Amino acid sequence: MKKLMRKIRALLQRYFVAGMLAFAPIGITIWAMVAIVTYLDNLLLPHLLALLFTEVESPPSLPLVGAIFTLLVILLCGVIARHLFGWELVRITERLLSRVPVARNIYNAVKQLFEAIFRSEFSTAFRLVVLVEYPRRDCWAVGFTTGAASQVFQSSFEEPMANVFVPTTPNPTSGFYLVVPERDLRRVDLSVEEAFKLVMSAGLVNPENEGADAPSLSPHPVDRPERLTGVP
């Protein structure tokens, strides 16, 4: 009887984990999108209507109208930021927030998160995914080449050098800029997007094993990756 109960419990556990892995991300995504739209619906327009129509106790609110109005305001802010005085205002605000301890940390975290989400050109500037021996020998870090080193650096060496950006985990928008000999770079057969997933998840999201159990570490030495033969 105990053996049967253990089997049933193990079976239920497997089904529960499978269900969570299959549908929890979808459910959380839908919940987050609904929460965002609802928040945007009530963010600006209801308060503006309340100011304009003071004699009305509860101004009428239509679904999605508030969200669309908020998005239009954001677009207007983008036009102001790019073509008028917006960036100067942002810089002034950043300087003020940098003097407030808690606000500074919150602002930096939110800013880095939004840069990672919305700045797609950040990843398109990278050309190749490579492994570079960093921060010490026999310790490899994922990096991205951004082309050959500038002539200012190249003149100090007798071999071709490459610009390499080594991102940090879990925020790949920050990292380290390295000038590395091309012969010391190892090409990795990953797209830039796959490498970003790998870095942001600290290796938990493995492009080769998405949806499968993570493999155990091999007790035998792993063959060294293929050397990079030239940086575009």
Explain this structure:
- Mean pLDDT is 75; it is low at 211-225.
- With 232 residues, this protein is of the alpha+beta class.
- It has helices at residues 2-41, 45-52, 65-83, 86-97, 101-118, 121-124, 151-154, 192-200; strands spanning 128-133, 140-148, 161-167, 175-181, 186-187.
- The protein has a domain at 123-209.
- Helix 1 (2-41) packs across helix 3 (65-83) and helix 3 (65-83) packs across helix 4.
Q: How are helices and strands ordered from N to C?
A: HHHHHHEEHEEEH
Which percent bin holds the helix content?
Answer: 40-55%
Principal-axes geometry comes out as: flat
Gap between N and C termini, in Å? 66 Å
- Lateral strand order in the biggest sheet: 4-3-2-1-5
DSSP strand count: 5
Main beta sheet:
5 strands, antiparallel
Structural class: alpha+beta
Q: Average pLDDT, to the nearest integer?
A: 75
Count of discrete alpha- or pi-helical segments spanning 4 or more residues? 8
From the alpha-carbon coordinates, what is the Rg to the nearest angstrom? 25 Å
Which regions are unreliable across 5 or more consecutive residues at pLDDT < 50?
Answer: 211-225
Assess the beta-strand content as a share of residues. 5-15%
